[in-house]
């Protein structure tokens, strides 16, 4: 990708797997990238680290003092699946960050999740679908989206579906043990490769920096909702694994997520379905 003639400063708060992949991409385009997390020794080259805990507002304010960021991406992930972890990471940490920015950014991008949808009837959902989650995780993520969207500058929420990619291969490991999903109850899953998460965010950042107006919400998922049965049986076939058992996974609802809006914005998926994405993973991480 060509280097930008104008360098911008992009802050990635919660600079983990997705954030670091995004940061490396932006740095290679010539931007100055700041990665904020507690353990900055895990940041890749090209990303300037700020070591701070998002839940500690005094330290956060001190460390961000005098730093102007053109774009802020909030991509922190809760360290555990608990109401406390979710509240602290997605709502309190975000609030603290918003109160610590020295100057208003041109655009804020908040990374959310398709966990905000309650639909469990295989229906097709998009950015206009109602979100009435019953789970604590979905409810807190909805609160976090509202917190982000109340910020006094242009803000976009990006809802990712299930992220997979290098090092995130729990489903492959399960199938390698011979365990697959049953045909019934049918469960649709929606997924996106880690590199497409970074790709979608980089695409939206480029648009925002170019002065284009972004939508308030994008649902970012690949082109191909599929049943767990189809995904796990396809994997077993690719791996040449004999199926030994069937077990239903934790149900995160059964819905089909539409990526029409992000595609209409011009984003082209590197991995349009689980087949391309997992085939690439099997080559690098057999
Ligand atoms: N997993 C999925 O399938 C999925 C689906 C939809 C959406 N998402 C969302 O996608 C986003 C990116 O996920 P990811 O895979 O990149 O997560 P990740 O690799 O776990 O990275 C998250 C980062 O947040 C940092 N962090 C957590 N708590 C923090 C705190 N209190 N202060 C400062 N930094 C903190 C962690 O770094 P330190 O530990 O060093 O602080 C970590 O590097 C998250 O918002 C996640 O909720 C995930």
TrEMBL record:
One Pfam family this sequence matches: Epimerase
Name of the top EC class for this enzyme: oxidoreductase
Transmembrane region(s): none
GO MF annotation list: 4-phosphoerythronate dehydrogenase activity
Top-level division of the source organism's lineage: Bacteria
EC number: 1.1.1.290
Assigned keywords, A-Z: Oxidoreductase
NAD-dependent epimerase/dehydratase domain: residues covered: 10-170
Entry annotated with the keyword Magnesium: no
InterPro entries attached to this UniProt entry: Epimerase_deHydtase, NAD(P)-bd_dom_sf, NAD(P)-dependent_oxidoreduct
Gene3D superfamilies the UniProt entry points to: NAD(P)-binding Rossmann-like Domain
Protein name: SDR family oxidoreductase
């Amino acid at each position: 990708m060509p280097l930008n003639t104008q360098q911008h400063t992009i802050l990635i708060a919660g600079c983990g797997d997705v954030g670091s992949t995004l940061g490396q991409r932006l740095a290679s385009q010539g931007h100055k990238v700041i990665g904020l997390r507690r353990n900055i020794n895990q940041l890749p080259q090209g990303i300037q680290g700020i070591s701070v805990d998002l839940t500690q507002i005094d330290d956060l304010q001190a460390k961000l003092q005098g730093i102007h960021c053109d774009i802020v991406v909030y991509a922190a992930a809760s360290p555990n699946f608990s109401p406390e972890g979710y509240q602290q990471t997605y709502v309190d940490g975000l609030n603290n960050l918003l109160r610590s920015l020295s100057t208003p950014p041109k655009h804020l991008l908040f990374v959310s999740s398709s966990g905000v949808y309650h639909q469990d009837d295989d229906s097709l959902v998009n950015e206009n679908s109602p979100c009435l989650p019953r789970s604590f995780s979905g409810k807190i993520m909805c609160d976090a989206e509202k917190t982000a969207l109340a910020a006094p500058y242009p803000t976009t929420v990006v809802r990712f579906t299930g992220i997979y990619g290098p090092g995130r291969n729990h489903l492959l490991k399960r199938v390698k043990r011979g365990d697959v999903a049953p045909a019934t109850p049918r469960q649709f899953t929606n997924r996106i490769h880690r590199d497409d998460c970074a790709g979608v965010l980089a695409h939206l950042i480029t648009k925002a920096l170019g002065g284009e107006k972004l939508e308030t919400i994008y649902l970012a998922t690949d082109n191909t909702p599929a049943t767990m049965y189809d995904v796990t049986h396809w994997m077993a076939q690719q791996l040449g694994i004999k199926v030994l058992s069937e077990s239903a996974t934790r149900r995160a609802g059964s819905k089909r997520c539409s990526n029409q809006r992000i595609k209409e914005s011009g984003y082209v998926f590197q991995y349009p379905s689980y087949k391309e994405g997992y085939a690439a993973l099997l080559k690098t991480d057999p």
